[in-house]
Amino acid sequence: MRSPNAPPDRRAPRPDRCYAARVEASGTNAVISTRELTKHYGGAVAALEGLTLDVRPGEIFGFLGPNGAGKSTMIRTLLGFLHPTSGSATVLGMDIVRESVAIRGLTGYLPGGVALYDSMTGEQVLEYFARLQGREAYRRDELVERLQMPQVDLRRRVRDYSRGMRQKIGVIQALQHDPELAILDEPTEGLDPLMQHAFYGILADLRAEGRTIFFSSHVLSEVERVCDRVGIIRHGRLMAVHEVRELLARRRRKVAIQWRGAAPDPDSLPGLEDVTVDGDRLFGTLSGDVAAFVRAVASPSLEDLTIEPASLEEAFLEYYADDAAISPPSDEAAVPAATQAEAGG
Amino acid sequence: MSGPLFSRTLAWQRTRWIIVSLAIFGWGVLIPVVYAAFSDTFRDLANSGVFPEELMNFGSGSLFSLPGAVTLGTQHPLAISMLAIFAVGATSTAIAGERQRGTLEVLLARPLGRRGVYVTVLVALLLVVLAVLAALLAGFIAGAAIQNVLDDLPLEQMPLVLLNGFLLWAAFATFGMAASVTFDRTGPAIGVSLAYLILNYFLEILGSLWRDVAWTQEYSLFHHFQPTEILAGDLDPTDLVILAIAAVVPIVYALIVFPRRDLAAPS
Question: Whole-model pTM?
Fold first, then answer.
């Protein structure tokens, strides 16, 4: 390992930036581009069904879905562990079937529930993977520091590690060579809240440096926190792709207002719905422009105002509440055309 | 070929490799000692007719000559068990073990083709098998020197014995690797590889002990490893060809099957 006192060289010029030209040449200008990607097991079980998706350069893309939805299958297909039944995909402008080895040379991958070599120390594991990667571990020292893996822990055998420590080593091995694209399958599993926070910071820095991150999760709150866009997968089908900002903007908020004296007529408050009045207190749900609502509610008699931010989860639940597309994949007609079109990114 | 993977594969075998090499060297030393001490007694026993002739020849070996004793030493269950630790145990668990532990996924996340991984691991393990076999033959030579019967052992033929023995064990090793790339768990991979070894051994021993079914020996790979004939200067090139084919066929199979397999998430 390099000395912890060595100056960070993660911004050093790198010899492998030609992928950008390949991405451009692929015609999609997407780091990950899938077209009708389908994976069936044993000819019958559909793990992925006609998945079309573009992940833009320099974004953090959240891939959301419940367990068994097809998130890991998608990732494993992109990396060449699984062979697509039909459809096509490129990663960094390279075909996932023909150029899988080259793709993996430029990609960092953290598998879900990462397994490591128990008989090796953390330090040996990282060094071994760096040598196999064939690229200098530009970011290792920085990641070790930010994820709080002291040297004494790195010199212990992996078999003695807790789940969280294994996950940290998993994260470091995936990112230490400063990959152009990081594919992370449930990366915060096993990390404590403090380390999750540190990890989100690392992702933000990677994005700031132009790296692309494809991030699978079933934890909506972390997707809300770190992702630029989010794709929802269910029963192997991509249900929708949205800007997180847009989703958050369309979500409803819970509002509680207290006045001194009589409450104003709720109809005069724009965007307020499901209103209930309890004495001098008013409860409701706000949708739409918050600024207009605050202007309308502002008065000398206003004593207290609480606007509770709805979680992304609520936004999704609302979004899909009346959407037949949430039904199982056998109901093919239920997938709305608009949703499929949006999935193209 | 991947240098780091090659080094790591050898490193993982290092301790076992050293222990087994020392043990098999000791076994090799013992064979000429037993030959020098008991060959006359065994010859008298054979001539007395007390024991059936078949029992005086175990497999293709015997204690009536040093080359026969060398063959006996290589075909003895003890020597076979030691060689099988690597040619069957290490090979059959090499890829299936990584798969079962889930580490194959992290390994293949690197810019390594599956064929490259297979070839690297196979070459490393074949090297280990070759070294263990060489330790056995070195033990024979050392034992013969200690017993002052080195003249009975044509040293110039020993490289051919090594080659013949290596091809035999390479055939088992490549079979083990083929099983390893086929299964997701080590249990079935070891089971199939061990069954293959035992079947071959059974056919060889059965044919040597029961003359009516001597034809079964032709179907055993062990029957094509004949140190006695080689040391007598009567190497049959057909034996080498048969063993080479038996070694190459599983390689071809693995090179086709492994890259085409779907590696689903470990359960």
Answer: 0.81
